[in-house]
From TrEMBL:
Annotated protein name in UniProt: HTH psq-type domain-containing protein
GO molecular function: DNA binding
Domain of life: Eukaryota
InterPro entries reported for this sequence: CenT-Element_Derived
GO cellular component, one term: nucleus
Length: 160
């Protein structure tokens, strides 16, 4: 009767260490590595086949366990490199929109609207006039942080 080995998920850092150990000491046997990490021989063989890729991984990625293989790591690095280069080339940075300066009404329009509102409300008794406010999901609201070449002044938040 064979005993089943529990499934072991190696982190990217552990896979790098396996490749480094084998690179440092070619006499080390794959069986020794399987016993040390409690994984199968075929797993060690697969990791060592792609050792060049595993050894290119940066320290910040060593603790990640989600990668299926070094090809995904290279794709992730190249995308981040491409995106970083694109942002640098087009001088794009992250800015927080400030205030509501561009959507502020002019003094003349405020006065005109105030007078129009007074005329509209003249037929009503002051005790019959109420101010209502709303709460809810603001699905038309723009993000407060954007990628842009220079800082932007904000608009009044759309609260539809």
């Amino acid at each position: 009767m064979s005993t089943k080995r529990k499934r072991v998920n190696l982190s990217t850092g552990q896979k790098c260490k396996i490749c480094e150990m084998k690179e440092r000491d070619l006499r080390i046997q794959n069986v020794e590595l399987t016993q040390k990490y409690n994984i199968g021989k075929s797993t060690i063989t697969d990791i060592l086949k792609e050792s060049k890729c595993w050894l290119t991984i940066t320290e910040s990625q060593e603790n990640v366990k989600k990668f299926r293989g070094p090809k995904q790591v290279i794709l992730l690095n190249s995308f981040q490199g491409w995106l970083g280069g694109f942002k640098k080339w087009h001088d794009l940075r992250r800015f927080k929109k400030q205030g509501e300066a561009e959507s502020a009404p002019s003094a003349e329009s405020i006065e005109r609207d105030r007078l129009a509102l007074q005329q509209f409300l003249t037929p009503y008794n002051p005790e019959d006039i109420w101010n209502g406010d709303e709460t809810g999901l603001f699905w038309k609201m723009e993000p407060s942080r954007v990628l842009a070449c220079n800082s932007l002044s904000g608009h009044k938040k759309e609260k539809s």
